[in-house]
Amino acid sequence: QVQLVESGGGVVQAGGSLRLFCEASGSIFSINRMGWYRQAPGKQRELVAAITSGGNTNYADSVKGRFTISRDKVKNTVNLQMNSLKPEDTAVYYCTAALVTELVPGEHNYWGQGTQVTVSS
Q1: Residues 104, 29: Cα–Cα separation, whole Å
Q2: N or C: which end of the chain has fewer CB within 10 A?
Q3: 3-state secondary structure at position 32
């Protein structure tokens, strides 16, 4: 009923930039928060950045000043602009949305399938 589809991952050299894109579709009534998590091999999934419906943002300390999250509330999309990338940013990046659907009561979290970001040194 709800799908989150990411795109924009790839391979980039250290110091380079990538932009991730995620679109939520389906029987969506409202989206409260959207964000990006990442998971590197052998590590736990961690929050990278999130943005509320009011535009408030929060970032992991490791990406502050380098990454910028933005969203389009009309199109139900969220972007992550990643600059000055480092090898330690290498991970699978997942889009997430806390939303209310037209079919199921209450707010639920949905996840995308993930997109690989690889930063070479």
Answers
A1: 10
A2: C
A3: strand
pLDDT at 44 over 90: yes
DSSP 87: G
**Beta carbons within 10 angstroms of residue 120's beta carbon:** 11
User: In the chain, how long is the greatest CA-to-CA distance?
Assistant: 47
**pLDDT given at position 117:** 98
Cβ-contact 77, 22 below 8 angstroms: yes
How far apart are alpha carbons 43 and 22 in whole angstroms?
23
Beta bridge partners of 27: none
3-class DSSP assignment, residue 36? strand
Q: Please compute the mean of the pLDDT values over residues 5-28 and round it to a whole number.
A: 97
